[in-house]
Design a protein that fits this description.
Layout: H1 3-11, H2 21-39, H3 47-69, H4 75-89, H5 101-110, H6 114-124
Length: about 140
């Protein structure tokens, strides 16, 4: 059965969440495989690592500047701050991004897909070093 059904069937009527031993072993296998194939790899090496680090730093600095200026037309406001504020408003809560602007930028960057990151970099720094060609988030229809 699907994992969600397995968990429901093994947790129903209990004060905790449980799963079958088979599902637990499958999750352990998948986690082990992820660590072997993804997490424990050396990552990007050489020149690519330096370029990627530079792209992260430039995006981080620019987003932090936009927050400090209160530029509500910037992408961190349009795609991050305003969306979180809207979602929290349903619960009568607010997003206190002003309290820790560094963390707000980190949260924004952490929420990005790889494609969004590259596209945002191209949008903010059209003459930057990183030149990946594809139709992206900011291209006109």
């Amino acid at each position: 059965p699907p994992a969600s059904l397995d968990i429901v069937e093994h947790s129903y009527g209990k004060p905790r969440i449980e799963m079958s031993e088979d599902l637990f072993e499958e999750i352990r296998r998948a986690k082990r495989e992820n660590y072997e194939k993804i997490y424990s790899k050396g990552g990007i090496e050489g020149d690519s690592e330096a370029e990627l680090r530079e792209a992260f730093e430039k995006l981080y600095d620019r987003c932090l500047q936009d927050l400090n200026k209160g530029d509500e037309f910037s992408y961190i406001f349009k795609h991050h701050v305003s969306r979180i504020e809207q979602q929290l408003s349903y619960y009568d809560r607010t997003y206190a991004w002003q309290d820790d602007k560094d963390q707000a930028v980190v949260d924004y960057i952490a929420s990005m897909t790889d494609d969004y990151f590259v596209d945002l970099y191209h949008e903010m720094f059209p003459k930057g070093k990183h030149d990946v060609k594809y139709i992206g988030y900011f291209d006109e229809d």
